[in-house]
Amino acid sequence: MPTIAAIATPPGAGGIGIVRLSGPRSKALLARIFLPLSPRFENFRPWFMHRGRVLDQHGEALDDVLAVFMPGPRTFTGEDMVEIHCHGGPLIVQAVLESVLRLGARQAERGEFSRRAFVNGRMDLSQAEAVAELIAAPSREALRYSLNRLDGLLGRRVLALREELEALRVQVCLAVDFPEEEVECLAPADFGRAVGEVAHSVRLLLAGQKRAKVMQQGAVVVLAGAVNAGKSSLLNALLGRNRALVTDIPGTTRDFLEEACDLDGLPVRLTDTAGLRRPDADAAASGGADAVEALGMALSREKLGQADCILLVLDGARLGEAGAAAETCPDAAARQVLELAGDTPVLLVWNKSDLCAPAVFPPRWSDGRFCCMVSARSGDNVDALAQSLRQILLADGLDNPPSDGLAPNARQALALEEALAELEELEADVRAGRSYDCCAVRLDTAAARLGEVTGLSSPAEVLDRVFAQFCIGK
User: Which family is it part of (predicted)?
Assistant: First the structure.
């Protein structure tokens, strides 16, 4: 393969700029443009930084640099590699790159270094994608998960599932090719059970996609509840600053207010909404002076449908102790929120605990939901609320504790969904008593879809699309 070169540091001026080469001529090209400053220099000692001057094609010095030669195959790309560390002025870095290009190196394409690492077996496709995700990580949590995927945790898990399907394929082939022979093969019941176990494992992996989406794109958390329940005060408490206007006048918040927040490395967008009243009160307001408030309530209901989690804020001072001891929710606005929430997780927040701390908590009518008692005014227990919210957002809903790295991205999730569909159809075929040669087709397809996650069976256009999203120097 040709030797490629690119600038590995971001555009603009900086303290250091790095030009990277990969390919069989890397060392030879470095030798032609590098003038060592040490009189004891004999050859490029592998993995050792050498100081010297880098020269242009005419032999004129361009910069005082540090250069390192890294022999393959134990490099990022699996090939011989060179890095030239020069001063980070854009003109200097570009001049160094042009020197190696004039001597025969080729300008690297987007993601070509990572693609060579994939082609040379230094990483699978899920690890290569983790490189780009690591660079673009918007939060500390996303950074941690991307780093663990870079270590190959997701790829190894998918490979193990694929090997289980391969073992089943062997049994199916024996049953098809030697039907009259006394060859040991899986009974239909055992076959169906084994397929079901693999399908369940794929479902667990797919459940982790929610965590990946939340970590990469952030979560939408909507604060909802009755008027004057303290939603705006709670927003300010979570943000640690006064962002929303707070008064004792009901209906102060007429429109929604969104602010970004960081929950211990997890990006969250908090949305404060207008307080809800009874539906009949909404209708009355819509024809009078409070028509703007009615529009705000309608917008609040719309925002509830976009939430990843809802903070249902309860006015503890108004409900009193009886509000928590009741068998059904006594707050009409809260009942509206719970009805509109559908499958969206709801965290019950008993606010104004400094004015009324119920003897029964969580409320009897909470139905097993997460509950937290806080005082937005004094800040009591707000940190615990933030931790509970973080736990809900990172949960996967399948009683599977969060596992670092097992959070597929959108492309990987699509391949897993297609594999799961084949496995579910295969389970139905086994229950229906279909012949093993028909089952073998679905096994082949499911194994191929799992292989797409790690790149074992990915078509060239998929690889082109993945690596086209990388920067040129990576």
Answer: Belongs to the TRAFAC class TrmE-Era-EngA-EngB-Septin-like GTPase superfamily. TrmE GTPase family.
322 has binding-site annotation: no
Residue 70 and residue 147 in one domain:
no
Is 374 inside a domain boundary? yes
The answer to whether 267 is a known ligand-binding residue is: no
Residue 252 counted as an annotated binding residue:
yes
List of long-range contacts for 282-290, beta carbons under 8 Å, 24+ apart: 290/251
Q: Mind listing the pLDDT tens digit for each residue in 421-454? A: 999 998 888 888 887 778 888 888 999 999 998 8
Q: Is 375 annotated as a binding residue?
A: yes
Q: Is 273 annotated as a binding residue?
A: yes
Task: Please name the residue ranges forming H helices in 57-152.
Answer: 90-102, 112-119, 125-135, 140-150
**Is residue 20 annotated as involved in ligand binding?**
yes
Kindly state whether residues 253 and 386 are assigned to the same domain.
yes
* 233 known ligand binder: yes
Do both 244 and 358 map to the same domain?
Answer: yes
Looking at 394, 429, 455, the residue that finishes a domain is 394
**224 belongs to an annotated ligand binding site:** no
Asked if residue 272 belongs to a known ligand binding site, the reply is yes
Q: Do residue 181 and residue 319 come from a single domain?
A: no
Domain count, the chain: 3
- At 158 the three-state DSSP class reads helix
Q: Is residue 442 within 8 Å of 425, Cβ to Cβ?
A: yes
17 appears as a binding residue in the annotation? no
pLDDT band at 283 (very low <50, low <70, confident <90, very high): very low
231 is in an annotated binding site: yes
139 is known to lie in a ligand binding site: no
What is the predicted pLDDT for the residue at 289?
Answer: 44
pLDDT at position 386:
87
Confirm if 337 and 224 have CB atoms less than 8 A apart. Answer: yes
**What three-state secondary structure class fits 129?**
helix
The answer to whether the annotation marks 286 as part of a ligand binding site is: no
Q: Is 451 annotated as a binding residue?
A: no
83 assigned ligand-binding residue: yes
Which two three-digit tokens encode residue 30? 């470095």
pLDDT of residue 393: 83
Coil, helix or strand at residue 355: coil
249 annotated as belonging to a binding site for a ligand: yes
Say whether 230 counts as a known binding-site residue: yes
Residues with Cβ within 8 Å of 5's Cβ and at least 6 positions away in sequence, in order, are 19, 20, 21, 22, 29, 97, 100, 101, 105, 106, 107, 108
Q: Mean per-residue pLDDT for 38-50? A: 90
